[in-house]
Amino acid sequence: MSYFSIPYVGPSVKELAIADADLHEPQCAPAHLTRTAGEFLSSRPIPKVIATRHLVFLLGPGGSGKSSVSKRFLDTWGVAASNVLRMDGAALRAQLVSRARYGKFSATTEQAPGLILDGVDCLYGREGAVSLLGGLLRDRCARGLKTVVTQGPADDSIGLLYSAVPPQVRASVLLRFPVGRGRRRFVQQECRRLSIPFSLAREHVMAEPWTYASVRAAIEALAVGPAVAPDSGAVHGPSAEMPG
Q: What pLDDT score was predicted for residue 9?
């Protein structure tokens, strides 16, 4: 059996009825937030709507800080790094095949206090995989265990998993790249880190296409050039844009 041939074992009529009731309860409206990684990685508290949920779906383009924000959420939930299991797309597909073949996920996958499913995609047309993964998320939420599911690079099929879990225990977060002053803060932060004047890197505030990785690489390239003196114009103090 392969990942692409996992059979569909759908929820029972009772489970579908419960899910439908949850979706129509006004007080159970799901939480949807749009932020930059820097807003979550700053010293400000994580929004209560995230801190009180068991499951977060984390979406955004590559390089938007999903991995760093996932770790921050688990830290906010009080899960020690040593108790977090991170599983990439390939490992998750192997687990789904094992679950379909032997009837269970690994004990660590089911019971880890914190679980990061990093890079979930390619679920379209694979109802069997969606059903099994949805069951895992539902069971972990029922136990009060914390899970972050991040969007993979191929597509946005992560959205097929939303209905597997009651709205009151999940949230979805869309990470975007900063604009305006957020970009400027990130460039200034990188200049301080590399001890180069902001004036040399100012043009990267408005660079397009703008990503954390591309701007960081461009500024690091400046740092290997001729020695430069510190720039008194750089703004010091904590930065709000610090994705790893």
A: 52
ω before 167 within 30° of 0 (cis)?
no
Query: What does the domain layout of the chain look like in residue ranges?
Result: 10-176, 179-244
Tokens matching residue 13: 């009529």
Residues of the chain under the 50 pLDDT cut: 11-27, 227-240
Report helix, strand or coil for 46.
Answer: coil
Task: Indicate the Cα dihedral angle 126, 33, 111, 18, nearest 10°.
Answer: -70
Q: Which of 53, 50, 49, 66 is nearest to 121 (CA)?
A: 66
Ramachandran angles phi, psi of 119, nearest 5°: 90, 50
Rounded to a whole number, what is the largest CA-CA distance in the chain? 70
Total-model pTM: 0.79
Q: Which CATH architecture has domain 10-176?
A: 3-Layer(aba) Sandwich (3.40)
The one-letter amino acid code at 160 reads L
Strands of the sheet with 114-120, listed across from one edge:
31-36, 170-176, 55-59, 146-151, 114-120, 84-88
Q: Could you tell me which residues are beta bridge partners of residue 117?
A: 87, 149
pLDDT of residue 43: 87
